[in-house]
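Name: Peptidase A1 domain-containing protein
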Amino acid sequence: LCDRLPSPMGESAVDCNGLSSMPNVSFTIGGKTFDLSPEQ
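Structure predicted for Peptidase A1 domain-containing protein:
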């Protein structure tokens, strides 16, 4: 999806210049799906 920059806390960051080409991310909690756009 894009180059990720490693973080010592186990998180990652992405270059915001590519935000418009990133897909939505979906995750499910308790059977309910939540969608996040790149802007979120």
